[in-house]
């Protein structure tokens, strides 16, 4: 058996969950079907995303694997020691070989799934074959899920579909009617659209006291994009609300936050200008994720803003705007102030 530190955190969680399943069900052996079920139920895991790309009914697949596990031999007593089948050993060795073939440094969840699909014996192989899932199809789906990312750290899975993990699509929410109507902010939304429509210096910062409705401006913008009531350059764009808290949360390893933010920014760049990022309370970005020897979020984002690879709308309170600008002069210089005032708020194109 391979060393535990050879696996990513996600893969370790899947293998641990599959062994816990053996104990809970009092099964006599740990087999590939346990691992497949753990893959399917792994919260936030890669496997469900791959099956989604393959348009496989997840419920149907879980039901089939569950029926196979129900037929597994059971013990009359609690499991004290877990015995592995030759298929499990073969599958883990194949997963390791797959990681090496793809030039990945760690064995991830995707390598385990590929190894299961390549296994020719047992119920798991039969179920996947019946659903038309094979190794080559998983490869193609994996390209969509992880893009050009490599498994180069124990937390590599957190970089896959980074925008989906760490942002909320306000345009999709507007399309589904999940956003409340924005009343009395027509002029302000129009001004934000004017700034966004510029060739340069096109990143508006909305400045105002807490609770005056700065965030509603982004929601109103998303609603107008869906309705088609925007300039030609803004049509078909997506407004994504970036969740900085989610990116910082759970980042235990040094550099993990930076990896997540870089993955988000890489996806935005690949969208080639189709995405407008909404960063709530932009002053909190200064210092976000920074630890000893690390760089904060604003430092990472400034070059992309300056080059026009990242376009943002960002609200901030009056009380912190001046001090934030002083601490981050390149951020401010990315777009000189263009200021105007309404009864409750002011907007500047500063990002």
Automatic annotation (TrEMBL):
SMART domains for this protein: AAA (SM00382)
Keyword Nucleotide-binding recorded: yes
Keyword Isomerase attached: no
One of the GO biological process terms: cellular response to heat
GO MF annotations, alphabetized: ATP binding; ATP hydrolysis activity
Domain Clp R: 4-148
Cellular component terms per the entry's GO annotation: cytoplasm
Disordered: annotated segments: 319-351
UniProt entry keywords in alphabetical sequence: ATP-binding, Nucleotide-binding, Repeat
Pfam families: AAA, Clp_N
Protein name: Clp R domain-containing protein
């Amino acid at each position: 058996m391979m060393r535990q530190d050879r696996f990513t955190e996600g893969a370790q969680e899947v293998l641990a969950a599959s062994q816990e399943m053996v104990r809970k069900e009092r099964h006599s052996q740990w087999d590939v079907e346990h691992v497949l079920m753990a893959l399917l139920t792994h919260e936030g895991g890669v496997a469900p995303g791959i099956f989604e790309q393959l348009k496989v009914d997840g419920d149907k697949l879980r039901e089939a694997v569950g029926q196979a596990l129900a037929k597994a031999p059971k013990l009359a007593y609690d499991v004290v020691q877990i015995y592995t089948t030759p298929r499990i050993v073969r599958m883990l060795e194949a997963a390791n070989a797959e990681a090496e073939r793809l030039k990945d440094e760690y064995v991830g969840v995707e390598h385990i799934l590929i190894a299961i699909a390549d296994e020719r014996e047992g119920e798991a192989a039969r179920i996947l074959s019946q659903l038309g899932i094979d190794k080559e199809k998983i490869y193609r789906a994996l390209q969509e899920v992880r893009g050009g990312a490599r498994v180069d750290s124990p937390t590599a899975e957190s970089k896959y579909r980074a925008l989906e993990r760490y942002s909320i699509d306000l345009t999709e929410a507007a399309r589904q009617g999940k956003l409340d109507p924005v009343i009395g902010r027509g002029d302000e939304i129009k001004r934000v659209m004017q700034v966004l429509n510029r060739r340069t210096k096109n990143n508006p910062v909305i400045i105002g006291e807490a609770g005056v409705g700065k965030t509603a401006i982004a929601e109103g913008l998303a609603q107008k994009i869906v309705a088609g009531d925007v300039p030609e350059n803004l049509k078909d764009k997506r407004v994504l609300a970036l969740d900085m808290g989610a990116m910082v949360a759970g980042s235990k390893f040094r550099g993990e936050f930076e990896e997540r933010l870089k993955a988000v920014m890489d996806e935005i760049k690949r969208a080639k200008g189709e995405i407008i990022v909404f960063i709530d309370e932009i002053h909190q970005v200064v210092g976000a994720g920074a630890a000893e020897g690390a760089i904060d979020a604003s430092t990472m984002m400034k070059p992309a803003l300056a080059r026009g690879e990242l376009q943002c709308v960002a609200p901030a309170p009056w009380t912190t705007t001046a001090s934030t600008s002083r601490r981050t002069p390149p951020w401010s210089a990315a777009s000189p102030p263009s200021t105007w005032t309404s009864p409750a708020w002011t907007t500047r194109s500063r990002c």
